[in-house]
């Protein structure tokens, strides 16, 4: 509905402009045909810009809708109480969206139960105790090697010229492909957006992360990491820290919200230097452990959760392709309320 209203407003603007052309021709002493021709020539660029804006708006709507659906699905899977057609809420769903030109896929694996999350019903003293546990939690503390290792292994696959970028985007299967840990949710999450063929994009993502031939051998996985790609991943991780360091808004936000993270380091600069040292000290053995423990299960049909938002016309084809190629049964969901 938001996208329809957006497009409608643009169309009304064009109608108003065209309606005023005849009046404008009298003011500038230019014939109506000449003015119309000039308007058309200048309007081509305007329409191109509007098309880009409309596509951007549509993508934002699709991504938000997908996130909302996926979050609700996670909630239902965790509770294990909601049913669809008398079965447990499915781990793999596809949602048709008429306004979508391309598909968006989010695939995740829950690697941490988040048992430290606060229970709103307990006393304030108990909450303080659990908050202390949360701050020292190795999966979410930015100072822990587990957290840094998970971030670094995701950078290995997702950074520019990394495997996901070069294979998935490089072959034109998706505009964007990334692998990111979500420490708050306890998830390792693969995102493929603007997929013209989502099954192909997912297949290439498997190849990028698990190695060539992964479609045929479910247990196949990389046995070593590329030294060049790892250097780029470390550089990308560190560059992100330093870039934040020189952003005034980030510095202000950090002083207000992240000061507790600095702990014994006293200030942001010392804290950042400690992180950089830790990033450089992570060994390949640690990364391979994180890869096998947290990344590989993202592609395991028994443990993964998949949500796809697809153009309505491609839903049946996508369901068939995922079944034939990966043995994944996608459940078609017409609305979030069905989850």
TrEMBL record:
Region (Disordered): 118-140
Start-end of Low complexity biased regions: 118-137
InterPro entries reported in the protein's UniProt record: Metalloenz_LuxS/M16
GO molecular function, one term: metal ion binding
Cleavable signal peptide: none
Name by which UniProt lists this protein: Peptidase M16 C-terminal domain-containing protein
Gene source species: Streblomastix strix
